[in-house]
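We close this part of the discussion by returning to an individual protein. In the encoding step, the backbone of a single protein was reduced to a row of integers, each denoting a local shape. The sequence in question and its structure tokens are set out directly beneath this paragraph.
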Amino acid sequence: MKSHSLNINGRLQRVAVEADKPLLWVLREDLGLSGTKFGCGAAQCGACTVHLDGAAVRCCVLPLHAAAGKRVTSIEGLSATEIGRALQRAWLEHQVPQCGYCQGGMLMAAASLLAEHPQPSDGQIDAAITNLCRCGTYPRVRAGIHAAAASLAAKVAA
């Protein structure tokens, strides 16, 4: 077992695990960051979405070695960004979560979308938010993304 250095939420972390261990389990088991959830284990549902150098990735099948030398942001680090804070406020305002299990991954996917498209269309939202929500909160997710985008645009205009 080799020791690995990772940049997680802006902090250097060291873990002694196998290089092919999925990043999801390193976050949850080795670093105690349990906000990133296990859903399907096949990178299909999106509950495990994190940012790798700013891009949304599903980390349940991503081996630890693929994160080497990159910035990893988990849901615990999202509030450190203006986009993350705007999304979290909008999520509360629009009561987006129902059970909440998938919402960490949803927020991470939404943050990546807003970083690339500050004023996304419904089509762009639908294309980017492929995360599964068993509770069916998709209309509220879309409303939350639009509200966060409007909030961020208002700050830029001010």
Remarks:
- Helices lie at 23-30, 82-93, 103-116, 122-128, 138-157.
- The CA atoms of residues 6 and 13 lie 5 Å apart.
- The two ends are 52 Å apart (CA to CA).
- The beta strands are 2-8, 11-17, 49-52, 55-58, 71-73.
